[in-house]
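Design job #97: recover the sequence.
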């Protein structure tokens, strides 16, 4: 049977790029996409027009409802129908903000939002098809209804406008672009970042006069209820704090509540048999967020037992050369002494030299 196939790879790629870059709060307040002859944008708005905000930001009590707006603009020369809906926010593997894939149903704040057109008698719906003429902007109402049992803290989401159109090969490609929605439910805010070292090892240098490298891998987890970034610092030293070293690893730009990521650090250290260290993590506030409590760092220790084989081998070589030199010197001295003794004995055995005939005899 001939049909239309959905090129899911293209959807995932476009979603990652557009939502990761444009929903993440970087760049203009209107996120713009293009597909064939149609280009469109989505931006936060008042009830009449775009209002210049980069994202939608609301702090709400459980059980309350608020209405915000987004403006979808068709910049193309032909009319277009867009699928407008909300979904849960996630952080992609590249560290950018994104939304759940188009075929995956939201389970958190994405389910709190419904879309409607002002003046339309139809009830607000989770997914809405919006027809927009060419060169026209349409403002849509976004109704946010927080459940009475919603947990305090951040509940990231986004609102997208999606267009599905055929490409040159007969496949349908879906392109979506949207606006990030920062939702915070009032209540006890608990910022907490946990860290756990999953691997720590030591790689010696083949040069015995240079330190080796400690490599540390750890899982950084947002165990609180608000989004946070993190700065990490690895420290290590030998017995009694000898030859301490430290190294900062790449910072974590953003971790959503319940999310975790892997970080790594490398630092130089001498193989002093016993090496103790720790990976320290300092939570940081992201963007324009407000955290009304003090952020505290967390730390996880690690211990390495390192036998300095390279240095011991070099030491053995040096000691061997010294011993060989001493033995060689002693052998040469012994041979010299033996030769001197032999010469002395030969002279003694030969006796005194004979005297010649007396004069006048």
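Job complete. Output follows.
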């Amino acid at each position: 049977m001939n049909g239309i196939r959905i090129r899911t790879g293209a959807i995932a790629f476009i979603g990652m790029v557009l939502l990761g870059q444009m929903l993440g709060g970087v760049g203009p307040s209107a996120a713009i996409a293009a597909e064939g002859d149609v280009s469109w944008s989505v931006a936060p708005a008042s009830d009449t027009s775009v209002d210049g905000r980069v994202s939608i930001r609301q702090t709400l009590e459980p059980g309350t409802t608020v209405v915000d707006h987004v403006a979808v603009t068709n910049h193309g020369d032909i009319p277009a129908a867009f699928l407008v809906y909300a979904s849960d926010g996630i952080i992609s593997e590249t560290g950018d903000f994104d939304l759940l894939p188009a075929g995956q149903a939201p389970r958190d704040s994405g389910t709190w939002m419904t879309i409607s057109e002002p003046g339309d008698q139809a009830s607000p719906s989770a997914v809405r098809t919006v027809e927009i003429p060419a060169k026209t902007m349409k403002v849509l109402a976004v109704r946010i209804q927080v459940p009475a049992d919603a947990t305090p803290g951040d509940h990231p989401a986004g609102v997208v406008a999606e267009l599905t159109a055929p490409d040159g090969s007969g496949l349908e490609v879906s392109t979506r672009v949207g606006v990030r929605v920062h939702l915070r439910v009032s209540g006890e805010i608990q910022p907490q970042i946990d860290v756990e070292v999953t691997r720590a090892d030591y790689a010696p240098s083949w040069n015995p006069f240079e330190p080796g490298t400690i490599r540390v891998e750890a899982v950084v987890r947002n165990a609180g209820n608000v989004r946070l970034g993190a700065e990490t610092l690895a420290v290590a030293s030998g017995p009694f704090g000898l030859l301490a070293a430290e190294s900062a690893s790449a910072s974590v730009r953003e971790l959503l509540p319940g999310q975790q990521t892997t970080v790594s650090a490398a630092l130089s250290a001498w193989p002093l048999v016993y090496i103790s260290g720790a990976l320290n993590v300092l939570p940081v506030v992201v963007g324009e967020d407000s955290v009304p409590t003090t952020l505290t760092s967390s730390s996880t220790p690690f211990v390495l037992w390192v036998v300095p084989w390279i240095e011991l081998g070099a030491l053995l070589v040096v000691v061997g050369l010294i011993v060989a030199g001493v033995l060689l010197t002693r052998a040469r001295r012994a041979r010299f002494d033996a030769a001197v003794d032999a010469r002395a004995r030969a002279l003694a055995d030969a006796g005194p030299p004979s005297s010649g005939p007396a004069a006048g005899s």
